[in-house]
Amino acid sequence: MFVEKRELVAMHAGELDAWERLLASLSAAQITSPLLPDGLAVKDIVAHLGAWQARTVARLEAAAQGHAPRFPQWPVALDEAESPETVDRANAWIFEANGRRSWADVYQEWRQGFRRFLELLRAAPEPDLRPGGTLAWLAEYQPLEGYPGFLDYHHAEHRAKLEAWLRSQAAP
Prior knowledge:
There is one protein chain. This protein has one domain: Four Helix Bundle (Hemerythrin (Met), subunit A), CATH 1.20.120.450. It contains six helices and no strands. The protein has helices spanning 5-24, 28-32, 42-65, 84-98, 103-123, 152-170. The chain starts with a helix and ends with a helix. Mean pLDDT is 82; it is low at 139-149.
């Protein structure tokens, strides 16, 4: 499947819009109370997404500036393949590290990160987004060929689960 850069940007911008609409529809209690399965709050999910998207932004910035990625400092060392074990440890740390942060701070960081991601994606030359381009770290995903949503997939996955949970709570 071939996806052009403009389509990729539009998909990601659409995902940001979908999240913005969803979050705007929720009350403060729905966002901050640990009502979700596994005792999570919506705030926890957004903090999780923001932390992982910061790694994607670091990779895009590195490609744009011609250096190795400068990832956010986490106390959990991730292996190159981001194995399930290290991802689980990182997710536990993300949850713990963001537990006491305000919703306003978590939301602002996530939103700014998503906007930065879109800015970098718009600025990336289309050949860089193809296999063999400067974004070699995306080789597994090939954003313009075969896997059109390398960031929004993570966001869409969590949004779909959240929307399903909200529908189940509204059911009689």
